[in-house]
Amino acid sequence: MGLNSVTQAVLFTSLVTAITVFSSYLYQKWKQVKIPSNWEQIGSVKKLHLYPLKSGHRVELQRAEVTKVGLREVKEDVKFFQLRDRVLIVYGAKDHEFRTARIYPKMVLINVSVHDEDHFAIDAPTMKTLYVKIPNRKDNAVTKVKCCYNEYIEAIDCGDEAADWFSRYTNERDFRLRLGYNDANQQRDITKSHYKLLNYYKNLSNQSTGLFADLASVTVINQQSVHDLNKRIGNNSNVTVENFRHNIIVDGPDLQPYDEDNWDWIKVGDNVIMRNVKDCTRCLRTTISSENGIRDINRQPLKTLETYRKHSGPENEPILGTYLEVAKIGLINVGDPVYIARK
What we know:
19 strands, seven-stranded mixed β-barrel, five-stranded antiparallel sheet, single chain, about 30% strand, alpha+beta
């Protein structure tokens, strides 16, 4: 190939790249929608929950920072690393597939906290506290973990000591489990793995995603929906919002069960604004108590949800609560007013 041919090829490639980038920019500008300016209050934040380990125990917060990829812990007296929602994930050493409480119910009893500026502390019943140095891309192996819908998400491995701890706790000494960490530096791409959902839910996009969350970065549930569910189950049912592992629990005197299905734009406090991008489909995980790790022998509350909350969309599963994409970041608190956009 002559010099002119090489030059032409380079120019052509550069032109195609430029057109692709510019087209993507135009699409994103076109896709942007105007954030509402008129709001009506429908309740307030009753609880704030953060789940550092996917399928692990919750951290109950009074205040949280809402970031593009989910909630982050806020402590005024601590200036270093703070916990993020679903920042850790357990996966198989051989198949690199994620593991959750659906397989190992007692994972819900694992607590994660910040030990110091360089370490997590991880605790569980009968186990000695595990101190995990926060991994980085330079010193630790980077892998891809196979998650929901065969989506592969990058994870930084937390080392052999953590792998031994999780393998012993779940009695998987032979198969081996490992612990992965998300440094929030990689944007997830769900265009191939979740294409059916993207075609159905028009507000859902790559920008909706969290770290190791099943899908979007923040979830919300209405306390009245859980009250109604308990009435339907009967027999003094004591299902709680914790069965559903949401980040923001909303309550209010005028709220009706399942109102959250119809919330489009949501504002919390003075600044944080989010948009409903998808309903939350429910699985066997909801039947496991977050307090003792025991699965309900009657498959409740899932069994009852299947009788009246089955979704007709591509997943064909019962729904409760909603996934939110963060449009405007900021701080939120328990007790903050919650608004929805006026129609």
